[in-house]
Amino acid sequence: MTKKTSRRAFLAKGLAAGAAAGTANSAAAATPDPLITEVQPWASGLGDGVDETPYGLPIQFEGDVIRRNVEWLTADTISSINFTPIHALDGTITPQGCAFERHHSGAIELKKEDYRLMINGLVDRPLVFSYADLERFPRENHVYFCECAANTGMEWAGAQLNGAQFTHGMIHNMEYTGVSLRTILEEAGLTAAGDLKDKWVYVEGADASSNGRSIPMEKALDDVLVAFKANGEALRKEHGYPVRLVVPGWEGNMWVKWIRRIEVMDGPVESREETSKYTDVLADGIARKWTWEMDAKSVVTSPSPQSPITHGKGPLVITGLAWSGRGAVKRVDVSKDGGKTWETARLAKPGEKMAMTRFYLDTNWDGSEMLLQSRVMDETGYVQPTKAQLREVRGLNSIYHNNCIQTWLVRTNGEAENVEVS
Ligand code: MTE
Ligand code: CO
After folding, report:
1. pTM for this structure?
2. Confidence of residue 29 (pLDDT cuts 50, 70, 90)
3. Whose alpha carbon is nearest atom 8 of ligand 1?
4. For residue 378, is it within any domain?
5. Does residue 209's CB lie within 6 angstroms of at least one atom of ligand 1?
6. Omega before residue 303 within 30° of 0, cis
7. Which ligand lies nearest the alpha carbon of 103?
8. What separation in Å is there between the alpha carbon of 318 and the centre of ligand 1?
């Protein structure tokens, strides 16, 4: 009850401030606004027919909401990475059309009819599934984020890329439909494998890179999906059409696309992707490995460098995304003064396991400079570290697994910039 009253009071105050600041609006009220007084072209003729766009694209005015590259990071379009425009999206679901892509040897085109999935190794009966075979197993639906381990990797040494899309856009969050890997492994039979505790699966893709990764059996039997739909429709070619692996909460590299083979083994392969890549060299030169889980992380998506404040002072919605590879997001705090003081943000929905959570801080901007930060806490009690805390443990040699608190300097004119606070 008291909460409601104070919220209404806040809104009233906010609107009053907005009206006072909006001198341009009051002036417009004195002169007739042709957008109201004149019949507009869109109201004086017919619109487009329903058959114009059998498969729809965003309206032309949203042409800015697109994936982007960082030129110096993308030597060619074959071994490539591009970034989700998280600064321009809201809610939590990433449309496939603008979700980031990472390919080691380009995106391949594989027809459903040509698709085969082999299960071999320490199984009772090695099997090969066609796409149609996979469709006959019981299906599941889950929303999960997929974050490349290299997300935010360019920020270790200092604030570098000016935009949430570039610092945090190697992530997408979609609803997957697929068959649980457990179901498929059980179909092949696991008694031949003996004690499952020390067993692994080795998964590889049909592209030339194969992107082979070892996954401990415990995870393979827990929540891994062999997925063929994202957000209700077929995977896009670039996301692994027709079938990819979904490894909830674990680094994107393990989400093998165009998956063609799963081998049950009695140890990990120690492939390229889990030795020379996707390991973290610490300050003393020794590397961490098997860093599968994505640590809890959050970022303010607006205001941010690509999404400045354009309306002046008054009511301001600060918003962003939070996620954790170890479970659900529990709480997000926002700071306007570089981490000195914190306010708890409102979660749009209670956090869900290994899925993105949208947060909002409905505030009143007095027009002064802000050092905006967000800090997530997940259901395990883990709190997102500062950059200094992370560097203390990990040194400066790392690329992967940078989950530190991000700072945007918001200037008095509403423009924002990527900065570091000490
Ligand atoms: N699987 C195959 N077969 N080939 C690849 O190049 N890239 C990996 C992973 N799976 C890759 C792959 C990496 S590093 C990431 S971050 C994710 O796929 C990215 O998935 P996306 O392209 O759907 O965003
Ligand atoms: Co990756």
Report:
1. 0.93
2. low
3. 253
4. yes
5. yes
6. yes
7. 1
8. 31
